[in-house]
Amino acid sequence: MSKPRVPWKAVVGGSVGNLVEWYDWFVYSSFAVYFAASFFPEGDDTAKLLNTAAIFAVGFFMRPLGGWLLGRYADRRGRKAALTLTVTLMSASALLIAIAPTYESVGYFGALVLVVARLLQGLSVGGEYAASATYLTEATPRGRRGLASSFQYVSMTAGQLVGLGLQIILQNTMSKEALASYGWRIPFVVGALAAAVVFYLRRSLLETEAYDEERRAEEPSERGTIRGLLAYKREALLVIALTMGGTVAYYTYTTYLTKYLSNTAGLPKETATLVSFCALLVFMCLQPLAGALSDRIGRRPLLITFGIGSMLGTVPLMTALGGATGFGGALALSLTGLVIVTGYTSINAVVKAELFPTGVRALGVALPYAIANALFGGTAEYVALWFKNAKMESGFFWYVAGCAAVSLVVYLFMRETRDAALSRAEQTAGAVPEQVQPGRV
């Protein structure tokens, strides 16, 4: 029996907007080393990075609100409508950062503009993750969902690569003074324009069959509501717990890596950026392979592999990275960390979507995931810099390993979700064991 086909048009349509969303989200972090001095008075470089990292974290604390509002919107108005709205919000936030005034001209008002922009980004990304994860999962038939949903992190990583690639170009075509003065604004202008283009692309997407089926079958009173989600409290708590270790490890080896290689290992910023770019390029290519593997062997084996690898490997890997002296060694170590993280990133979206029924799927993915990211993902960089500033940098490595250990316990005891039926049509198409239907863990 041949495998069902992957609806590549839907996958590409759902992913391209996600690329721009995460380009805008991560470009703030990758260019922080250049614009930190523009919004804060003269002082210690690490202190300036702490300030910009704090504003970076502020965006994460807005994500639970965005997850609730836009997750509810996606469950009540449709996945397509939510995808269009999130990219519109992201375009506006990128434009705000691009035109933000500096400390020299208006004092701390420029930093306030940054905070407002990050709040808007957090609102947008809080809903984007769930809308994209739900759309990619629902638009794909059972047996290929792991492969299709892995393109969420393909597009997220591609957004980072575009940002890093633009940074490399600017580093090689502009002086450090010009970059610190005005060059850092260029990527935010690019992000705002790209988001406007994606807005029109997403308007042509088709709604998923699972959502259309749910909309026709039931009244919308409980759809996308907190009351409806409370019927699945265990699943929501499971999302928070399984996200904890993965999000800390992901942000450690992606957004924080360039700063760590530059600020701790002492590599030139250009070398640190190139290491991140090359490592992320390989990481992006691994996502579909791991996603397809999960369609064959299940989601849990990959999650467990990540949990063990991150728990045991973080301390030695980060210690070795801190002593890296050249491009080759830093790249090899970074890739090792990202290969481990792939066990989580490639399938985390589909696992969460497979836990919930259609009526609360977007909200069920969005809100618990956003809470976990606010508590652990958004604070990862700030916690790392805090440990460094306190002269206890290795404490952060143990923190990451500890978060992975907590999630590993969850992976070991959660049930497999690979064969979950996401709609009534899938349930009637073939017998599905009760324990793997959405809403059962």
From TrEMBL:
Record-linked Gene3D superfamilies: MFS general substrate transporter like domains
Top-rank lineage group of the source organism: Bacteria
Protein localization: Cell membrane
InterPro entries: H+-coupled_symporters (IPR051084), MFS (IPR011701), MFS_dom (IPR020846), MFS_trans_sf (IPR036259), Sugar_transporter_CS (IPR005829)
PROSITE patterns: MFS, SUGAR_TRANSPORT_1, SUGAR_TRANSPORT_2
Keyword terms, alphabetized: Cell membrane, Membrane, Symport, Transmembrane, Transmembrane helix, Transport
Membrane topology: Multi-pass membrane protein
Domain Major facilitator superfamily (MFS) profile: 10-419
Presence of the UniProt keyword Metal-binding in the record: no
Entries under SUPFAM superfamilies matching the protein: MFS general substrate transporter (SSF103473)
Membrane-spanning parts: 21-40, 52-70, 82-100, 106-130, 151-170, 182-201, 236-253, 273-290, 302-324, 330-351, 363-384, 396-414
Pfam families recorded: MFS_1 (PF07690)
CDD domains: MFS_KgtP
Keyword Transmembrane helix annotated: yes
Family of the protein in this entry: Belongs to the major facilitator superfamily. Metabolite:H+ Symporter (MHS) family (TC 2.A.1.6) family.
This protein's name: Alpha-ketoglutarate permease
Source organism (scientific name): Nonomuraea coxensis DSM 45129
Taxonomy of the source species: Bacteria, Bacillati, Actinomycetota, Actinomycetes, Streptosporangiales
